[in-house]
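Researcher: Hi, I'm a grad student and pretty new to this. My advisor asked me to get structures for two proteins we've been looking at. I'm not sure of the right format, so I'll just paste the first sequence and hope you can take it from there.
Model: That works fine. Here's the first sequence with its structure tokens right after it:
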Amino acid sequence: MKKITSLFKIKYPIIQGGMIWASGWKLASAVSNAGGLGIIGAGSMNPETIIKHISKCKKATSKPFGVNVPLLYPEMDQVMKILIDQQISIVFTSAGNPNTWTLKLKNAGCKVVHVVSSVKFAIKAEKAGVDAIVAEGFEAGGHNGREETTTMVLIPLIKKAVKIPLIAAGGICSGESMAAAICLGADGVQVGSRFVVTEEASSHINFKKAVISADQGSTILTLKELTPVRMIKNKFYKEILNIYSKGASPELLTEHLGKGRAKKGMFEGDLDQGELEIGQVASQINEIKPASEIIEGMINEFNKVLSIISLYKL
């Protein structure tokens, strides 16, 4: 765990996921102020909006924070220039080739972390020179890997394959699940879905309430022909099922999806026609809390679990 806390200069090895439409400056600064690493999710922001969120986050916290950037971003040259000009010290990249930007970011003094869902891409990211890896399991919300490898299986596999610090993601929302990830070989954890349902998250209150209402089996990984995404089964998902039943082609799915489905659901609160991206741990989330309480609760639970484990000696 010291590998992560030392790398990012934070108190606790808890990293907030950079979820689109949920991870603005308010959430990022709240997590950082509570001892974790807050992340601004730039995937849903245009360049001007990114600058505004960075500026506000700098004013709201004196602690380290980072920015998450999907590498498929259409204005990547401009976005990377912003991150370098704004002297962002920690950048999380995803959904693309880490070879493209890692060296330039590191030469600018950034710590670079890449998100992967397989051993193959973990090795590729390490060779690209990243400082750490986020290994995201099948349980995670939003866009993840096609392999459907669970976090419990993925972490030990990647731990054996790379030498750089490893951050576990997918299905982690408590001190107990954090302890499990550490036991499997992770040096820290990334928490996404639990931070969606916080007072500081920019996700719509309708979406937060939908997450609270979710049960086991309420989410599903779908649209693997395009970009796999885990979402709540709502009216929009049922429309996708109907298209599949008619022999869906990628073109037909793309046409039906249109644009802005994630924004419509998570940011604007349309629970019928929006894409409600959330992880399987939604079934364990039952209230909206401040981010600081979530971190405090996770650390207390984590330490309690360690005390219990120490009693079991075979």
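Researcher: Oh nice, that was easy. Here's the second one.
Model: And its structure:
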Amino acid sequence: MISLDFSLAIALYTFIFLVAVLLFWLFSRRQKEKDLSLDPRFIWFCSVCTYTFVNTKEDKISVCPRCGSYNRKAE
């Protein structure tokens, strides 16, 4: 049988826990580093309140979510 001191057991438990947290952090961070790209035709600028918003519909006129004014896409 292996004899294990109490302080060594606590140190091993803490080390294993920290390694598990580190591995979880590394794998979750890798998933977040995906490239996000946004087509410039979906970015709208409100001419009244200068708010920038995203509208994925391909309309020529959009309503600003902040002030409610109608905006036409500049060509």
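Researcher: Is there anything I should tell my advisor about the second?
Model: You could mention this: The mean pLDDT is 86.
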